[in-house]
Amino acid sequence: MGSVERPRRVVVPPGASVAHGAARTVAPYTPGPAATRELFATRTSELLGRLRRLDAAVDDASVRDIADWLHVQYVGRGAPVPVGFVAACLLGSPYVDHRLGLDGRIQEHCAAHDVMPPPFDAARMLARSGAYAFIEVYADGLVLPVLPDGSVVRP
């Protein structure tokens, strides 16, 4: 059997130009080694505690303070920033889980039959399992479950 020739794919960074007629495939974002280390680093007990308090906070000023602190923590680590979190809901029946935005607002309490929009839908069953403190959801669809001790489960 002879060799098979296949057309070569050209992978270029976004915004770069390619000769007319050449195939164009955009490479997905891949964090560098330092960003990857930070992405999978153990979450601090303070971060875990503030996320738990965020779920129970009632007054807007404390919610805003916690959300601002969370935003600074995630932006300052040099890794991708999650678009939000999915966690088990403590309100009880009929709610089983909820979506939290990085702004600190509970975006939606969900009953078992409700549908979560993407990319949050991928984290829903993980949150329902009860094994995780919360699940971080990223814009590219990455979901990172965080255990109650702060360690991150790699996908």
Distance between the termini: 40 Å
**Gyration radius, rounded:** 20 Å
Order of strands, main sheet, comes to 5-4-3-6-7
Q: Quickly count the helices.
A: 4
The helix/strand order is: EEHHHEEEHEE
What features would you describe in this structure?
The chain is an alpha+beta fold. Helices cover 26% and strands 19% of the residues. The chain contains 4 helices and 7 strands. The protein has helices at 33-39, 45-56, 60-75, 124-128; strands at residues 11-12, 25-26, 84-88, 95-101, 106-111, 134-137, 143-146. The strands form 2 sheets. A 5-stranded antiparallel beta sheet has the order 5-4-3-6-7. A hairpin with a 6-residue loop joins strand 3 (84-88) and strand 4. Helix 2 (45-56) runs antiparallel to helix 3 (60-75). The longest helix has 16 residues, at 60-75. It is globular, with a radius of gyration of 20 Å. Mean pLDDT is 75; it is low at 23-28.
Summarize the structure.
With 155 residues, the chain is of the alpha+beta class. The chain has helices spanning 33-39, 45-56, 60-75, 124-128, and strands spanning 11-12, 25-26, 84-88, 95-101, 106-111, 134-137, 143-146.
